[in-house]
Amino acid sequence: MGRGMTATSQPHLRLATPADTAALADLARRAVSAKFQHLYKPEDFATFMEAAHSDAKVAKEIADPGMRVAVIEEAGALIAFCKLVLKSTLPTGHSDARAPLELKQLYTDPARIGGGLGARLMAWAQAQAEEVGADEIQLTVYSENAEAQRFYHRYGFAKIADIEFWVGNHCDPEFLYAKPLVPETNGLSKSEQV
Ligand SMILES: CC(C)(COP(=O)(O)OP(=O)(O)OC[C@H]1O[C@@H](n2cnc3c(N)ncnc32)[C@H](O)[C@@H]1OP(=O)(O)O)[C@@H](O)C(=O)NCCC(=O)NCCS
């Protein structure tokens, strides 16, 4: 392979396209099930999965101009992803942010956890947040998910509120996390700089 060509076997981060729908929904269902399925009654988990991770839902998210979905692909397979909602839909009143962006889901293929894919997605999410002028990144994490909390703390997130997360008819205690984004300069927005 000549210089300048992309090695397709290397993990490659890109925006999701409609053609990714089935593979992305499949990865999400496998990753979410591996981490959380054992915690719930089958009917509650099935209701949640259909609402949050069906092919139809994923297709809608990829097509949504208010969202950005990134995937990491390796050798034709999707191995990690995250979803951003440019205007956060998370509970308000817990921070002073005026333009928070929501990091909706962040998952690595269970076989690839700990290999740096999450770090790449987090760097991408942060760059996107800066590009759209967000002043905070917000997300939610299950109160018992200590591993993910450790991951988020590493990137400067902190808990700002106790909230709830529903899985079918089951309500879990959930944490609202936020990371304020510090403007690069002295308060002037990029468009105001000369
Ligand atoms: C959280 C997650 C997306 C991070 O992606 P990743 O590709 O593993 O991230 P990296 O390799 O860049 O970072 C590894 C760090 O992630 C954290 N981590 C989260 N879950 C982990 C797990 N099950 N095993 C090991 N590390 C985990 C640790 O802090 C780890 O740091 P360490 O190596 O110092 O122990 C990934 O671990 C994952 O998919 N976890 C299960 C699903 C989940 O909990 N998602 C978040 C929902 S809010």
From TrEMBL:
Sample GO molecular function, one term: acyltransferase activity, transferring groups other than amino-acyl groups
SUPFAM superfamilies, A to Z: Acyl-CoA N-acyltransferases (Nat)
Q: Residues in domain N-acetyltransferase?
A: 11-182
Q: Does the keyword Transferase apply?
A: yes
This protein's source sits in the domain of life called: Bacteria
Q: What Pfam families does UniProt report for this protein, alphabetically? A: Acetyltransf_10 (PF13673)
Keywords attached to this Swiss-Prot or TrEMBL record, sorted alphabetically, are:
Acyltransferase, Transferase
Question: Record keywords: Transferase included?
Answer: yes
This chain's protein is named: N-acetyltransferase domain-containing protein
Which organism does this record belong to?
Novosphingobium sediminis
